[in-house]
Design a protein that fits this description.
Membrane topology: Multi-pass membrane protein
Protein name: Polysaccharide biosynthesis protein
Number of domains: 2
Shape: globular
Keywords: Cell membrane, Membrane, Transmembrane, Transmembrane helix
Subcellular location: Cell membrane
Strand content: under 5%
Structural class: mainly alpha
Organism: Bacteroides gallinaceum
Radius of gyration: 23 Å
Largest sheet: none
Length: 512
């Protein structure tokens, strides 16, 4: 099968998974919010907030093992993949133990004057913290197996496991509704248990189906390979920790000044943003291995082509959901949740806007990593995501409103981090910035602004309700699709879309 055909097939599996898991996850969040209440939901968000970031941490760290496995596959070197996997197992076990010790040590600081939690819920919050540490430990250990599945581009199995995980979380939520013991503690137990279950499932599958996933540390530990992976994974880890500390630190800061109720609003926005990002990020799981393999085979021109198209498509796909949501956030949250926490509307809109800005360079980090030059980017991003904490504190101490957390985040991600990523891609990969702006940045921003303007016109002239939701969505998306196909895609991309459409139609006719 051709590269494009394989990407399309794998993307199809991932969208199948998304179509099932998004609705399950959104309903699960609604059940948990109403079962725990806004205060306990906020406690889980701030104390166990690392869990919501584990997916990012897992993906960033898996990038190291996956990069080396994909690069070796591009070279056609199967023996090297076995060495890479075993060295990666040793590395991630070591990282997991160190992180667990550091997190447990930090608990005494968090629960002695940092976190603003009601006295009668301190004990439950401590239990949630311990379960978060357990989840973190096993998530890091799972990284090499996730990398192997992605390196083999086995998105069907990835989709099946993702659906199973969502179903288990829904079952846990339904059990908690009727539980007689402390529901918050029970929820933490379930989340840790599900993380361990996912590790076991992935481990058994990889050992059975992939030759390179056979563990023999004594035979395959290689100092040079371990040093290379450690260096690459180390800088990926630095970037991930910066993001983790920045996001969790922001949650802790606003909790300190505004209480747990504000964290409930933040948690709602994070849950919704994560599910919507799955719509665009599914394509990236199928595309990222291809980008690295192209570099491994020495075809940098093709690597850049796939990378720029990936960022553009990721933005355009995410915007299909983000634009109607940005227009009708209050009404959509009312439909989704019985009780909408204060600030949830504002926070959710800001999180969508930040996520849109992230998509503009989403594949360029993979492109830079494919060359092995990930040190400068990860170091810069780690510092850039952590430094705003020292801005939040004086602002909130002087009476600034909570939304300033996201104003600073938007500027940081949209201009500072994206700008440095472009610079690094030009420096190490030969990216033409003018070509990027002309073919990715300006078309994406232009389509979004025009469709938002049309959608908000409907919003202003009609009363809130289902009719306005349908009309504002219809007019904004019609405008968006017309602009997208007229201005966003170049000739080659339009040709691929037309060819794909013709192929799908022919298959449908054959089946009939």
């Amino acid at each position: 099968m051709s590269t494009s055909g394989n990407i399309i097939k794998n993307t199809g599996f991932l969208y199948m998974k998304m179509g099932i898991t998004v609705f399950i996850s959104l309903y699960t969040t609604r059940v948990i919010l109403n079962a725990l209440g806004a205060s306990d939901f906020g406690i889980y968000g701030v104390v166990g907030g690392a869990i919501t970031m584990l997916g990012f941490l897992n993906g960033a760290m898996a990038g190291a093992t996956q990069r080396f496995m994909n690069y070796s596959a591009g070279e056609g070197n199967e023996t090297k993949q076995l060495t890479i996997f075993n060295n990666s197992i040793l590395l991630h076990w070591s990282i997991a133990v160190i992180v667990a010790i550091l997190l447990e040590s930090a608990m005494f600081v968090f629960f002695n004057g940092v976190l603003n939690i009601e006295p009668d819920r301190i004990e439950a919050a401590k239990w949630i913290y311990h379960f978060t540490v357990i989840s973190t430990l096993f998530t890091i250990i799972t990284v090499p197996y996730d990398a192997a599945i992605n390196a083999h581009e086995n998105m069907l199995y990835y989709a099946i496991v993702g659906i199973l995980e969502s179903v288990l979380k829904l079952i846990a939520a339904l059990i908690i509704v009727h539980a007689c013991i402390d529901k918050l503690i029970l929820y933490g137990i379930f989340m840790a248990g599900i993380t361990i279950t996912m590790l076991i499932i992935k481990q058994l599958y990889c050992r059975k189906h992939y030759v390179e996933c056979q563990i023999n540390l004594k035979r395959y530990i290689d100092r040079k390979t371990l040093k290379d992976i450690t260096s690459f994974a180390g800088w990926n880890f630095v970037g991930s920790i910066g993001t983790l500390l920045g996001n969790c630190g922001g949650s802790i800061v606003i909790n300190h000044y505004f209480g747990t109720a504000i964290n409930a609003a933040e948690n709602v926005g994070s849950q919704l943003r994560g599910q919507m990002l799955a719509f665009s990020n599914n394509m990236l799981k199928a595309l990222n291995p291809v980008i690295v393999k192209k570099e491994g085979s020495g075809d940098r021109t093709a690597m850049l082509k796939f990378s720029l198209t990936g960022s553009k498509l990721s933005y355009l796909l995410f915007a299909i959901l983000a634009i109607p949501f940005l227009i009708e956030t209050p009404y959509i949250l009312k439909l989704w949740l019985k009780n909408v926490p204060d600030w949830a509307v504002c926070f959710s809109r800001f999180q969508m806007a930040v996520a849109l800005m992230e998509q503009l360079t989403i594949t360029l980090g993979t492109t830079i990593g494919a060359t092995g030059k990930n040190k400068e980017l990860n170091l810069f991003c780690s510092v850039a995501r952590f430094v705003p904490l020292f801005i939040y504190i004086p602002l909130f101490a002087n009476g600034f409103q909570p939304y300033w957390l996201y104003v600073i985040m938007f500027v940081n991600f949209g201009f500072i981090i994206n700008g440095f990523t472009l610079y690094q891609c030009k420096k190490f990969c030969g990216l033409n910035i003018h070509y990027y702006c002309k073919n990715v940045l300006f078309p994406c921003i232009g389509c979004s602004l025009l469709s938002l303007g049309i959608g908000f016109t409907t919003y202003l002239f009609l009363d809130e309700g289902f009719v306005r939701l349908i009309l504002s969505t219809f007019f904004s998306l019609i405008t968006y699709f017309l602009c997208m196909f007229a201005f966003a895609f170049n000739k080659e991309e339009k040709h691929i879309i037309h060819s794909l459409s013709d192929s799908i139609l022919r298959k449908l006719k054959i089946k009939r």
